[in-house]
Write a structure and sequence with these properties.
It is a single chain. This protein is mostly helical and 188 residues long. The protein has a domain of 126 residues: Calponin-like domain (Actin-binding Protein, T-fimbrin, domain 1). It has eight helices and no strands. Helix 4 runs parallel beside helix 5. It starts with 10 loop residues before the first helix and ends in a 26-residue tail after the last helix. Belongs to the calponin family. GO terms for molecular function: actin filament binding. This is Transgelin. One of its GO terms (cellular component) is actin cytoskeleton. One of its GO terms (biological process) is actin filament organization.
Amino acid sequence: MASNRAEKAGFAAEAHSKINSKYDPQLSHQILVWIKDLLNEDIDTNGENNSFYETLKDGTVLCRLVNAIQANTVKKVNASKMAFKCMENIQFFLEGAQKLGVPSEELFQTIDLWEQQNLHSVQICLQSLGRKASKHGVHGIGPKESEANVREFSEEQMKAGQGVIGLQYGSNKGANQSGINFGNTRHM
């Protein structure tokens, strides 16, 4: 989509180029292959900047992705190609991703995808969703998330642990503060 925004200049241009430098085409390819396998649809998995954007920009693929992970997460997907309807689809995806457990820090802003402002944050969000997908019984991407390992100790074990002085407390090896002259002037 051609943006109607003015070209960035100065510090804004530097900041935007730094953000764009974080975009990883290989990660995009991996994400698109995962989406293709999960939706069982023929989508372009090239992963180049424009391909990634063109595949996801209207939000319909994203909404179908969330529904493939957990049915009826997104109730309505707009088929219209009008800008506000596409942005609404992206917002529906973001709400669905948050319901599936993606932390708010890993979500992107609608404008990041719609106007290609920050495709790296879109990658982060989809990668996080891929990790959360395995908790919903769907093949995900990325490393498997850890699960809680709660340990219960008896009162006797807790008391026994209080009497132990571990090596982590350290030792001063006989050091003291003699020879430190606070407030004295240096004698020459």
